[in-house]
What does this fold into?
Amino acid sequence: MRISESVYPKAVSGRGAIGFVQDAVKDVLEIAEKGAHEAAGTVIGLGDEMTKALNSLELGGSVGIVGGVAVLVSGGAMVLAVASAVAAGKMTKALVKQRPLTAEEAGFAARVFGGTLPAKERLILTNLHSLHGRGFTMPSLSDDIFLNVGLEAFEHPLTYTHGSYIRPGQLLIHELTHAWQIHHRTFVPAWVCSGIITQANNSGNSSYAYGAAGEPWNQFSIEQQGAIVDQWFGGSRIPGQKPEDPNDPYFRYIRDNIRAGRP
It folds into this structure.
């Protein structure tokens, strides 16, 4: 579900940025109460003026709580999120947990990324996830990058497994690939606009599917790149695949792009 600024002209002109957010959150929650599939959509596309207004309120530099939902703003998009086991409309700031990567976690990440990630102090894990339960990564105005992975992965990122993330730490590697993408983009708002909407709204696995090795790295989408990296790390692309296999045909992207810092 994407809601453009033009949908809320009265909220924008009469009630300001917070009024806009309150109205948008209310609409999303009303859809959720009706059980509509569109309620899974958590991203609201913003015009330039609304983005500036929300950023001036520092909703983009940290996590804001509006209407019982966590709100993150950056690069022309607003993402609504909740903490694990907390219903939409019931969020409070006290329920938001966040912390930078530890030295152990940064060392773990270096096995895949070498030294091409931002400093660990800039990589902030949170217990948030999108309204339909998916993790997502998003930059902030303060130059930090939020890795919103849910409570279990927040507390135990190196041992967490779930669904297609079969190897401990595989989800962290996936979200760190998005942090790598942000770090190596010269125009981050373009990354946010093209990636966050797919990342947070996707309710299936089609956006993660990628073709045969051989295509240039930049021809893969943001989520395809994330899947290539985490599945190489996890050995989960095909039965019998070895984790972190340097002979895997997709290792070329780890060696020539990820570890070389070439987006």
Q: What stands out?
A: The first strand starts at residue 43 and ends at 45. The chain has eight helices and nine strands. The two ends are 29 Å apart (CA to CA). The longest helix spans residues 9-33.
